[in-house]
C-alpha cells in the first residue's frame, strides 16, 4: 500500500486532531478498565472517523479490533456495525473477496435475527459489489431488495442511497428515464435527514444524469458544486472523485489547462486514498484530454502509467484471493487432523486476543505520531503469530506421521520375518491360502508404514536422493518383478518387459527410489487394471538425454480421477479385496520423480487402460571391473550366511529378524544393548552385526563407533556392520567408514538376500 494512502490531508478539518485525541483517550480508558463494550464503542467511533476521511486501511484496522472487543463483550448490536464498516473499507482497498464474505455473513445474520435495517445495508453493499463486477442484473436485484426493506424501516438516508444506486444501474443499462425517476425520488427526501456523504452521492448522480443528457453547462455547474462540497467535507477520496468528474467536462468545453490541473490533482488524491483503479481511470481520461490538444507524448506517458496501475490492482486482487483460499484450506485441514489439540488452540486464541488488546494500547500512542506505523506494526505482528501457529501445528502433524510409521515397523518386522521363515522352511505352507493372506497383510502394513515415512520426509524436505549412485536397469527391473510377485502373490498378472535397443544398462540414478516408484506403479496397475497383462517399457528420447519408462495396463482407465491422481489420499476405483492402501503412493512417487529432476504424467491409452510415464535425465554410467563380469552374483550368497549378531531391544523386531536369518541358515546370536553384546563379540567374533538405530537408552551409531574402535585396538580385520532403523538413512551423516549398509524395517528375505550377496568377510 502506498505510504501516501494513509497520510492526512494538507488542510485538516478544524478540531480533527482534537477529535482523534479525545476518542483515543476514551479508548485507552476503556482498555485500562477492562471494559470490552466501551472499547468496542470507542473503536467504532474511530472507524467512522477514519472512513469519513478516506483512510480505508486505518478504518479496517480499528473495525477489526472493535469486532474482537465486541465479541468479548458479547454485544450483538455493535458487531454488525463494525463488520459493515470493515467490509466497506476492504471494498475501497480493492479487497473485494473479503468484503463479499463479510457482506454475505451480515445478510445471513440479518435474516436470522429479523434485522431489516442491517439486511437493507448488506443488500445495498452487495449490489455495489455486483455492479463493480459487471453483473448489472444481480446488482439490480440486490438494490430492489434493499429498496423494499427501506420501505419498512424509517431510514431516509439509507433509502436515498439505495435510490441513487438504482439510478446508476439504470444509466448503465441504457434506461435514462428510469434513472431520472429514481433520482427524483431521492431528491424528494428531506435534505436535513441526509448525511454529507449521501448528499455528495446525490450530486454525483445528478452530474451523471446531466452528462448523459449532454447538458454540458448544467453538468459543469453541478460538478463545481460537488467539488466545493467535497472540500467542505475534507474527504480525500470524495475530492478526488469530484475532480475526476469535473475535469473531463472542462476538457470537452475547451478549458483544457484547468482540466489538466484538476486531472493531476484528482490522480494524486486517488493515490493518497490507495484507489489504484480510480487513479488508473483518471490517468486514462487525462491522456485522452492531452491527445485532444495534440500533446501526444504526455498522453502516451499517462496511458502507460494507467495500464501499470490497473495491472497492479488486478495482481493484488488475485493475490488476496489465493491467500484467502490457501488459508481456508489449511485451517480446515488443521481442524480435521489435529482435533486433539483443540484445548491448546483455544488457549492460543485467548492469548492472541489478550495480545491484540495490549497492541491496541500501543496503537494509541502510535496514532498520535502517525497511524501508518501503528497499523503496519499490528499487521506484521498478527501475520507472524498466525504463521508461527500454523507451522507448529503442521510440524506436529508431520512428527505424528513419522512416529506412527516407526511404531508400525517393529510388529510388522515380527510378522513378516516369522511368515517368511515358515514359507522358506515348508513349501506346503507357502501354498496355504491363509498363510499367503497373512503374509500379504503383513506386507501391506509394511507398505503403509513406508508411505507414512516417505510423506513425513517429503513434507520436511528431508527425503534423500542419491543422484550420483550407479543403477543397473536389468537388475532393477528384475527386483521390481520379484517384489511385486512377493507382494501380490497369486493375483499378480503377467509383467511384459520391453527394453529399447541401444539403451544403456548402467546409469546414474538412485536405484532404491526408482525401484520404489516402479514397484508402486506395477502394484497399482495390478490392482486397478484387472487380470490382464502389464507392460513395463524402457526407452530413451531421440536426443538420448532422457530416460523414458512407461507402465501400462489394460483395465478401465483413469476415468474422472486423472486430474487428482497425484494428490495425497486420492485412490482410484477398484473392487473386492484389492481396495487397499493409504492413497499416498502416487503422490509420493510423483514427488520422488520431481526430486530426481524428472516428471511423471498419467493418461488413458487409446486401446483402453491407463498409462503412467516417467521421464528422467539420462546419464550413462560405467560398471566397475567386478560388476562387468558375467554372472557376478546369483540370488543366494556365494558362501552361505555367516555368523550374525543381532542387537535390538524390541522383542517383536528381534523375533522377526531372527526368523529371516534362520530362513537363510544363519548362526544367529541376540543382544539387547552394548553390555549384552560384548561377551558375544568376545566369544563368537561374528563377521556380520545387525544393529538397531534407536535403542531405548543407547544410540546405535555410538555402539557402532565403540565396536569399530574395539576392533582397531585388537587388530581385528573390518567386520560388516549393518544399521537397521524404522527411518531413512540421514543425509547429513557421513557413515561410509562406520557402516556397511542401512536397512529399513521391516527386513524381508528379499532385502537381506541383497546384503548377503556381498562376498563373505571371513
From TrEMBL:
Q: What is its EC number?
A: 2.7.13.3
User: What keywords appear on the UniProt entry?
Assistant: Kinase, Membrane, Phosphoprotein, Transferase, Transmembrane, Transmembrane helix
The record's SMART domains line, in alphabetical order, gives: HATPase_c, REC, TPR
**Domain (Response regulatory) ranges:** 643-760
**Catalytic activity annotation:** ATP + protein L-histidine = ADP + protein N-phospho-L-histidine
Q: Which InterPro entries match?
A: CheY-like_superfamily (IPR011006), HATPase_C_sf (IPR036890), HATPase_dom (IPR003594), His_kinase_dom (IPR005467), HisK_dim/P_dom (IPR003661), HisK_dim/P_sf (IPR036097), Sig_transdc_His_kin-like_C (IPR004358), Sig_transdc_resp-reg_receiver (IPR001789)
Q: Which Gene3D superfamilies match?
A: 1.10.287.130, 3.40.50.2300, Histidine kinase-like ATPase, C-terminal domain, Tetratricopeptide repeat domain
CDD domains, per database record: HisKA, REC
Write out the transmembrane intervals: 359-378
Modification type 4-aspartylphosphate: residues = 692
- Stretches assigned to the Histidine kinase domain: 403-620
Example of a GO MF term: phosphorelay sensor kinase activity
Q: Tell me which domain of life the UniProt entry assigns to the organism this sequence originates from.
A: Bacteria
Q: Can the keyword Methyltransferase be found in this entry's annotation?
A: no
Does the record carry Nucleotidyltransferase as a key word? no
Q: Name a single GO cellular component.
A: plasma membrane
PANTHER family (UniProt xref): SENSOR HISTIDINE KINASE DPIB, TWO-COMPONENT HISTIDINE PROTEIN KINASE
**This protein's name:** histidine kinase
